[in-house]
Amino acid sequence: MIRGAWYAVTQRENLTTKPMKVTIHGQDYVLYRDEKGMVCAGDAYCPHRGCDLSLGTVEGAELICPFHGWRFDRDGRCTRVPANRGVWDVPKNAARATYEACEKAEWVWLYTAPKRVDMDASTEPDLFPELCSDNWTRTPFRATWHAHFVRVVESVLDVSHLPFVHPQTTGAGVNPEVDGPEYALTSNRILIHPKPFAPVHPMEPVEAVETEDERTEIELRAPNLWIIRTPMGDGNAMCTFLTFTPCDTQTTEIFGAVARNFDMDSPLLDEFHLSHTRFVMGQDQAIIESIRPVAPPYDLHREAHVRSDGPTVHYRAMMRTWLEEESLR
């Protein structure tokens, strides 16, 4: 899994001064808010005897271990060992590793590579503009899939499965013979304009709009930010956003939002859009959780591929390159 990346861990209103434990890449982290509301993140276990610090409490900017009362500041330094009574120094190896964390859009994000002194304090997730604009209304949701992170991401880049997995919804009336798909690549981005036209929302126009500015568009900002944009005419649009967090090699948390930039005071549209999205994702989930081997092979010769697999093949090649680069750091 890629450690040098931002992962969503919870909706922002769920994080309080009560410590919260999350698992990413099979590693446990504890997050909490300090007295100023700032998000703090670090290793989940006390360096003294390994107690779970999510059972602890927060006073001011310090996290207090529930076992022996050791205190840690937001930078992981142990500031007090009550049993020492001020006679002995705090052990040099009593510090906890800490991590960058922030709030953006509807979620709290964690950067899982350890914090560095030279790390740019302004670094944050590079989210799509629809998630940060007041001109869009957003309804967040969450799902858990028992599948490998890469398999889950590849499922939303695959356009040829629509008529088979979603015959009554997004694949209804879609020709299984894929034209392309048309896509473009950069070092960390995949942009897809799927053909033939497949309605991705039940409210979408029946016929495809031919102008380039009015095409359905799928964008992935690797490794884990995905959006599908659906034009509704007259500058109106709907979109579905997903971001993927690998808990371990067999579990992926999906944090998402359905959004639109019109009829801002019509919550029934959001309910309809969200219900449709959950139904379609449920169909995908059953398929992706069935795949074996669970972890995808990075040696592409171990699976058969065809032209319509282009975006997923390129994504897997990206992942292989990033993993190789991280292993050299």
Can you walk through the features of this model?
The chain is an alpha+beta fold. It has two domains: 106 residues, Rieske [2Fe-2S] iron-sulphur domain (Rieske Iron-sulfur Protein, 3-layer Sandwich), CATH 2.102.10; 199 residues, Naphthalene 1,2-dioxygenase Alpha Subunit, Chain A, domain 1 (Alpha-Beta Complex). The chain is 16% helix and 30% strand. It has four helices and 17 strands. The strands form four sheets. A seven-stranded antiparallel β-sheet has the order 11-17-16-15-14-13-12. The longest helix is centred in the last third of the chain and has 22 residues. The chain is globular and about 75 Å long. The protein starts with 5 loop residues before the first strand and ends with a helix.
Helix content: 10-25%
Query: Which ranges are low-confidence, i.e. pLDDT below 50, for 5 or more consecutive residues?
Result: 196-200, 202-206
How can the largest sheet be summarized?
Answer: 7 strands, antiparallel
**Highest CATH level, the class of the largest domain:** Alpha Beta
The structural class is alpha+beta
What is the overall number of helices? 4
Can you write the helix and strand succession as a string? EEEEEEEEEEEHHEEEEEEHH
Strand order of the largest sheet: 11-17-16-15-14-13-12
What number of structural domains do the residues give?
2
Mean pLDDT: 91
Beta-strand portion reads: 25-35%
Radius of gyration: 22 Å
State the oligomer. Answer: single chain
User: Which outline best applies?
Assistant: globular
